[in-house]
């Protein structure tokens, strides 16, 4: 009986928040921009928010991209009032029919789709299923809006028929409205390229270390230009953007190696892009640390194939985590140190600390489960949280507790909350 009452209260609370969210969306005069795609949506959304911030008031919601967070964004933040010119929301699909409710609540004025790849295999199983799910964002476009679609991806381009709104395209295709050319990146030289559009040619310089970042960058740049942001402002704001933690983030501690940390996601299709980034680099010594692959389906072949590809690029390949033994590295590679098999982030960190050379390049590629970003953070911070599995999906820099032993996290957070409450109370009392 008690559980039924609790569930009833939860349902009533959820319906109330949903009502408030819908009302806030209906009353808002902001331009709502929804961004989805199998990869690149977080970077595209963050960069677009950064560009638009030079042109007006922006609220950007990325990473936390669920229906619950969208309802919270609308029912709490948007309801508080104040002028917001743009709302940028990253919409993720976690399974069939998860995108449609978000899209219909968001009612985007602009729908941006980066790419379609096979993700969440257990739920979607086919590319067509993924495309069908992402298509819901375009179908929910408000009258007078537009879809910004990847012209190089037929599954994305096919979404144009989901809405009567106009379609704008970007990509390397000659038919793209925003056509990309002259893509160059060879770390430490960052990504640069040119965009051909109705306003002429715009040369873009970015802070990204790899060529594959052109796609989310162009998605953001083209959307901003289409929304009327001046070209020079778009160019300048793109050049000053700081890449997100764990998503192609460069960390170069003084006197130490250069880390490219890509430890938020590791779907199979992203490995080739990350490895190519290392192959193009002009650094002499290169190492690759590979952790957990995303959407791992139990196949030994994926890790073995990844090792063969990484071995062609790097002087040493380090596998970490419970699947490290799946590399099928030869005994000769193991004996020579060409391949190293470790289990935990702490073991990888200790090994890198003992063997690192100044100005070598180390790629850290993994899903978020292992939090391998700690390997790079340990060069500039006193990392003391080395638990193998913490259960948190957010990165260590977002969590902010990596300098606190894991077993003390709960106590530390409680004490921090108490201090904040005391501070607010003293402020209210005028002390």
Automatic annotation (TrEMBL):
Residue ranges annotated for the Mur ligase central domain, each copy included: 35-223
Which keywords annotate this record? Answer: ATP-binding, Ligase, Nucleotide-binding
SUPFAM superfamilies, per the entry: MurD-like peptide ligases, catalytic domain, MurD-like peptide ligases, peptide-binding domain
Gene3D superfamilies assigned: Mur ligase, C-terminal domain, Mur-like, catalytic domain
Which Gene Ontology terms cover its molecular function? acid-amino acid ligase activity; ATP binding
Q: What InterPro entries is this protein classified in?
A: Mur-like_cat_sf, Mur_ligase_C_dom_sf, Mur_ligase_cen, MurCDEF_CellWall_CoF430Synth
Tell me the protein's name: UDP-N-acetylmuramoyl-tripeptide--D-alanyl-D-alanine ligase
């Amino acid at each position: 009986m008690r559980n039924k009452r609790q569930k009833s209260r939860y349902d009533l609370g959820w319906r109330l928040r949903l009502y408030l969210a819908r009302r806030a969306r209906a009353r808002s005069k902001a331009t709502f921009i929804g961004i989805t795609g199998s990869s690149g949506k977080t970077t595209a959304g963050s960069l677009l928010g950064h560009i638009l911030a030079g042109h007006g008031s922006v609220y950007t919601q990325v990473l936390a991209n669920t229906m619950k967070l969208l309802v919270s964004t609308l029912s709490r933040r948007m309801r508080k009032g104040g002028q917001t010119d743009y709302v940028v929301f990253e919409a993720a699909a976690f399974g069939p029919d998860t995108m449609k409710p978000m899209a219909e609540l968001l009612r985007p004025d602009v729908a941006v789709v980066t790419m379609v790849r096979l993700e969440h295999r257990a739920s979607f199983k086919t590319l067509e299923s993924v495309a069908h799910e992402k298509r819901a964002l375009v179908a929910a476009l408000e009258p007078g809006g537009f879809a910004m679609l990847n012209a190089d991806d037929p599954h994305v381009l096919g979404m144009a028929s989901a809405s009567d709104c106009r379609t704008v395209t970007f990509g390397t295709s000659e038919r793209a409205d925003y056509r990309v050319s002259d893509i160059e990146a060879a770390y430490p030289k960052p990504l640069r390229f040119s965009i051909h559009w109705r306003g002429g040619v715009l040369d873009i310089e970015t802070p990204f270390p790899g060529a594959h970042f052109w796609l989310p960058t162009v998605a953001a740049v083209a959307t901003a230009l289409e929304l009327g942001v001046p070209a020079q402002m778009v160019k300048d704001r793109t050049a000053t953007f700081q890449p997100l933690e764990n998503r192609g983030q460069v960390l170069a501690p003084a006197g130490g190696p250069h880390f490219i940390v890509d430890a938020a996601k590791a779907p199979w299709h992203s490995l080739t892009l990350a490895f190519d980034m290392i192959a193009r680099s002009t650094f002499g010594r290169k190492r690759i640390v590979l952790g957990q692959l995303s959407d791992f389906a139990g196949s030994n072949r994926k890790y073995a194939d990844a090792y063969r590809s990484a071995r062609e690029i790097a002087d040493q390949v380090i596998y970490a985590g419970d699947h490290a033994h799946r590399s099928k590295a030869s005994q000769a590679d193991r004996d020579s140190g060409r391949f190293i098999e470790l289990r935990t982030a702490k073991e990888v960190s200790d090994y890198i600390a003992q063997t690192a050379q100044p100005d070598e390049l180390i790629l850290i590629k993994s899903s978020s489960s292992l939090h391998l970003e700690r390997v790079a953070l340990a060069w500039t911070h006193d990392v003391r949280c080395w638990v193998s599995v913490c259960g948190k999906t957010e990165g260590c820099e977002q969590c902010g507790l990596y300098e606190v032993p894991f077993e003390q996290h709960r106590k530390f957070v409680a004490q921090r909350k108490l201090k904040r409450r005391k501070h607010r109370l003293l402020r209210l009392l005028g002390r």
